[in-house]
């Protein structure tokens, strides 16, 4: 396990049996009026992200769609999780150095903000250049800030969290977060057959539910693109490329769901979305020593292959002729 313990980096930490390691989090908020202690301002904040991670992808996409590229700067980490230091800067196409602190590893950013930090070192990270600390490292919080607090500096006409739809957005976000965004990891990180069997059914039942819900609809809530769609899209776009194989989420492909597949393609083709999706980063990350995956003693549930389906006569004839 790669994590910080009291500010010391461990590349192979082994917790004691039953020991729970704190997730470690920064949960301050940026507000348009500054009442939170962190005022929305241009060129004050910096995002540390990875194109590989769906949670970081939420913030990359929101920053792009809200027109905040010249307002909030960004550093992109390597997708190669196999390095003993975890998230590292550079060495891959479309990555960058740490242009703010000049560090080589993301865990150094965490210990600069909190020298005795204990927990996993995750992306995204929202950094304040003025106070020299991490404002927040929870993707849902950062997404919310980007789409609501920076309208004075970005595309205010794009309302991704409209007031009249907020209750419905919050409700679908809770469902998607537990059952799908985190659900794929519950399957992939399962340490026993029982854990795996208990995780895979809720995941695909949730996909079945959304397949029905999206019948005749383009978006999850109302008739407009919202942050709820961002949160679902970043998982779905990775499903067949990574989760199906790397995380054993292989009961069905995304392409086996006509409505979900069409929904994902529709969002992918919206302006500016496709350029935020880097499949080379995604595949490298999930198939290169991705920590916690997979217990090879677990028997995967899928794929479902119906060999009882009779071949067509043409297929049979061709096989005989061959």
Summary tags:
two-stranded antiparallel ribbon; Glutaredoxin; Glutathione S-transferase Yfyf (Class Pi), Chain A, domain 2; 2 domains; 10 helices; 322 residues; four-stranded mixed β-sheet; alpha/beta
Describe this structure in words.
This protein is an alpha/beta fold and 322 residues long. The chain has two domains: 3-148, Glutaredoxin, CATH 3.40.30; 163-271, Glutathione S-transferase Yfyf (Class Pi), Chain A, domain 2 (Up-down Bundle). The chain has ten helices and eight strands. The strands form three sheets. The protein has a four-stranded mixed sheet, sandwiched between helices. Helix 1 packs antiparallel against helix 7 and helix 4 runs parallel beside helix 7 (227-246). It is globular. The termini are far apart. The relative contact order is 0.13.
């Amino acid at each position: 396990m790669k994590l910080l313990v009291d500010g010391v980096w461990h590349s192979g930490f082994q917790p004691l049996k039953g020991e729970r390691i704190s997730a470690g989090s920064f949960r301050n908020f940026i507000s348009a009026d500054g009442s939170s202690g962190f005022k929305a301002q241009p060129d004050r904040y910096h995002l540390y992200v990875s194109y590989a991670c769906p949670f970081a992808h939420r913030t990359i996409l929101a920053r792009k769609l809200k027109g905040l590229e010249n307002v909030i700067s960004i550093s992109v980490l390597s997708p190669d999780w196999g390095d003993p230091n975890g998230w590292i800067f550079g060495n891959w196409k479309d990555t960058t150095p740490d242009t703010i602190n000049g560090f080589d590893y993301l865990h150094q950013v965490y210990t600069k903000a909190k020298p005795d930090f204990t927990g996993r070192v995750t992306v995204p990270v929202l950094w304040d250049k003025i106070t020299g600390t991490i404002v927040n490292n929870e993707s849902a919080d950062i997404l919310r800030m980007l789409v609501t607090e920076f309208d004075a500096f970005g595309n205010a006409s794009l309302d991704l969290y409209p007031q009249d739809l907020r209750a419905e957005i919050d409700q679908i976000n809770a469902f998607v977060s537990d059952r799908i965004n985190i659900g794929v990891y519950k399957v992939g990180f399962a340490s026993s057959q029982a854990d795996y069997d208990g995780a895979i059914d809720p995941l695909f039942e949730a996909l079945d539910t959304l397949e029905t819900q999206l019948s005749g609809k383009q978006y999850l809530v109302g008739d407009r693109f919202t942050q709820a769609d961002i949160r679902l899209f970043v998982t779905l776009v990775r499903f067949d490329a990574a989760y199906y194989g790397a995380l054993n989420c292989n009961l069905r492909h995304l392409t086996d769901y006509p409505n979900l597949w069409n929904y994902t393609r529709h969002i992918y083709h919206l302006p500016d979305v496709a350029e935020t999706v880097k499949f080379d980063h995604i595949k490298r990350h999930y198939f290169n020593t991705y920590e916690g995956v997979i217990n090879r003693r677990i028997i995967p549930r899928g794929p479902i292959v119906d060999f009882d389906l009779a071949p067509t006569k043409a297929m049979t004839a061709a096989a005989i002729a061959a």
